[in-house]
């Protein structure tokens, strides 16, 4: 069972991103605030859930959250400011869109760029520990997957319906054969030997 909050004194938003390791498409981020004492036994890190389960949970999160927001940063912007800064920017943009101001932020991972004057806590594997981060991971992932499915129609040879822009062998080979699309991140090296891990 995931924990409701990291601290209980302030209104807390959980943040996470999706698409950081992709060759193509934007990076998406979400921020979620749940009511005090919120419980949901079905919520978990989006990577641990099937696509079907993520899509079932999305409307539940959106209905039961006190507030939520989803934002993205384009491939072009990623190339300009780098993926780490783009991830922070996407999370900041999501926080900007919240109608309820967060007084405390918990973020999945080990690094975050401070948002305004709001205190934050980075939590490694936080999407498997806290409900709001898990919910943010689900929203970021499902909205990004939908975006990639929509643009996949115009670029079928990259197999984005299956890989969502991640560097699978088929995706890398398509880039080597057909070149890059307007949605590709030009600063990401397709032939990087590390990508053999995928």
TrEMBL record:
SUPFAM superfamilies: Ribonuclease H-like
Enzyme class at the top of the EC tree: hydrolase
Protein family: Belongs to the RNase HII family.
Keywords linked to the UniProt accession: Cytoplasm, Endonuclease, Hydrolase, Manganese, Metal-binding, Nuclease
Main location: cytoplasm
Reported cofactor(s): Mg(2+); Mn(2+)
GO MF annotations in UniProt: RNA-DNA hybrid ribonuclease activity
HAMAP family attached to this UniProt entry: RNase_HII_B
UniProt keyword annotation of Ubl conjugation present: no
Cofactor stoichiometry and binding remark: Manganese or magnesium. Binds 1 divalent metal ion per monomer in the absence of substrate. May bind a second metal ion after substrate binding.
Transmembrane parts of this sequence: none
Organism domain of life: Bacteria
Residue positions binding a divalent metal cation: 16-17, 108
Function noted in UniProt: Endonuclease that specifically degrades the RNA of RNA-DNA hybrids.
Annotated protein name in UniProt: Ribonuclease HII
Intracellular or extracellular location(s): Cytoplasm
Catalyzed reactions: Endonucleolytic cleavage to 5'-phosphomonoester
Gene name linked to the record: rnhB
EC numbers: 3.1.26.4
Residues in RNase H type-2 domain copies: 10-198
Pfam families on file: RNase_HII
């Amino acid at each position: 069972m995931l924990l409701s909050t990291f601290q209980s004194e302030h209104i807390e938003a959980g943040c996470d991103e999706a698409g950081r390791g992709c060759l193509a498409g934007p990076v998406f981020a979400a921020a979620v605030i749940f009511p005090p004492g919120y419980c949901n036994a079905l919520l978990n890190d989006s990577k641990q859930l099937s696509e079907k389960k993520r899509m079932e949970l999305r409307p539940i999160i959106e209905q039961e959250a006190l507030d939520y927001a989803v934002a993205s940063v384009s491939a072009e912007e990623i190339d300009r400011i780098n993926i780490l800064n783009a991830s922070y920017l996407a999370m900041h943009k999501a926080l900007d869109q919240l109608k309820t101001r967060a007084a405390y932020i918990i973020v999945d991972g080990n690094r975050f760029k401070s948002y305004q004057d709001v205190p934050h806590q980075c939590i490694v594997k936080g999407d498997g520990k806290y409900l709001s981060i898990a919910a943010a991971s689900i929203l970021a992932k499902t909205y990004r997957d939908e975006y990639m499915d929509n643009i996949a129609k115009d670029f079928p040879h990259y197999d984005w319906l299956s890989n969502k822009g991640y560097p699978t062998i088929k995706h890398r080979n398509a880039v080597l054969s057909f070149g890059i699309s307007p949605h590709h991140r030009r600063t990401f090296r397709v032939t990087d030997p590390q990508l053999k891990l995928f």
